[in-house]
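Let us work through a complete example step by step.
Step 1: write down the sequence.
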Amino acid sequence: MSDQSAPPEVVYDPTDPMNRREQMFPRLSLEMVQRIAAYGEEESVPGGTVLFQHGQRGVDFFLVLEGLIEIFSLDLHGKDNVFTMHGPRQFSGEMNLLSDRGVLASGRVAVDSRLVRVHADAFRRMVASEADISEIIMRAFILRRVGLIRMGHGVVLVGPGHGADTLRIERFLVRNGYPHRLIDTEVDPAAGGFIETFRLRDDQLPVVICAEHCFLQNPGTAELADALGLTEVIDPQRVYDVAVVGAGPAGLAAAVYAASEGLCTIVVEGLAPGGQAGTSSKIENYLGFPTGISGQALSGRAQAQALKFGARMAVSRHADGLDCSGQPYRLHLDDGQTLAARAVIVACGARYRKLDVPGYARFEGAGIHYAATAMEGQLCANEEVVVVGGGNSAGQAAVFLSRIASHVHVLVRSSGLAATMSDYLVQRIAQSSTITLHSRSEVVALDGDTRLRRVSWRHRDTGEVITRAVGNMFVMIGAEPNTDWLQGCLALDDHGFVLTGRCAQGNLLESPYATTLPGIYAVGDVRAGSVKRVASGVGEGSVVIQAVHHFLHPEGG
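Step 2: predict the structure and record it as tokens.
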């Protein structure tokens, strides 16, 4: 007989930061405390003093010698919610201390305390110089950010869970690691209270609400980023050593190596770090990760590395043009800002290709997706889904979704997958009872109301048309280069990819990543002839910095 009174089994989750509290809130050795003190100044602070506030930029780092710092946020009613405290030999902060973004929580001294205050610039020097202390701080900051996301501290997003704009906003928050909670008005019983409290109409949704009197009705990406303090304020008079356009694997690798080698570096990214690789549910053939790693986790770690070495991140700003008429080069951003750089690395990747099917645009974001992450996966529980494409991204999506959806239909125009997909993915698809491969097939019709409800596809040889009740279709059929902003500056091939390695006369250049203009380089998917793989993008991004050094300091060899 079973013991009816036995408590339920507790399953250990290694990804839960609360299971790593000693790393999340470490207590430093006395020797480390002394070294940190050399970068700052000791202060005696009365209890109740506010040290920093939510949304404040350029916040200082605080180490407790005696006393207590309490970290708190405000709820939607303006009341304090203290969610952690730092005691002697513990420190404040999370990932935004590495940048000039607004911090995600407030901090105050709970009792009369002695603290070491390390100003922002000195803190960055300390992180770059003190390797063992940096390792402890970086691990704690990353875990704290994950904890904030798990606890839902941040903003509240209210809207229909399947709505295109709700998904657009949530995707931006998720990709940028910004803590939030979704109130799905389609299914969440708590939604009624929010709608009544804020007197919302259906046509006003989605809205973003935060405790600091922030109320945004269906904000655009740039507006949302500005309101949440995610954007960088760019000094138009400052000249950077290198500007990296694009924060995919190639761009992030270039930023890490450039910043770590002392170059003044800024990264311009239109949506979020990671590029297309950041949308992959799991990358299993990337060197050094035998159990695989999600694209978002990989890009998050790379971003943290770049910030650690001092790179600046201008997220939610697209490059809109390039003034290449003289040195320094000047990048024009889509919000009207400009920035100057002596060298430019073009790593802006490519945008997703779309299907030529009637009504396609109507369902983009409302059933048609270009990424298969946990966010999109939750929309597909126990439903049939369609994945269109035969590359690795499509294979990874199909395998991931097969664990969530009732069935996955993979559609390819060719006769099979072997020529375009890694063998380990081909084998998993072939062995899965919940994935069906439809070769020589193409989508011919889409149907639905406010969102996608049905998908029809036709076999190209037999003419047979199959229609299924499908609410989510994942389109992964390759991409087109994001090079419109480069027109008139660089030589492009017939498909719009950047030509590298040879000058206009056809002679070899000093670097395989050099373009037809000195000091401008192209790496990753945007480069003509590149291998469209994460590892190759990372390799190109790291190697190109040698050429940048030679350009900036030709006398050094």
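Step 3: interpret the result. The longest strand covers residues 338-346.
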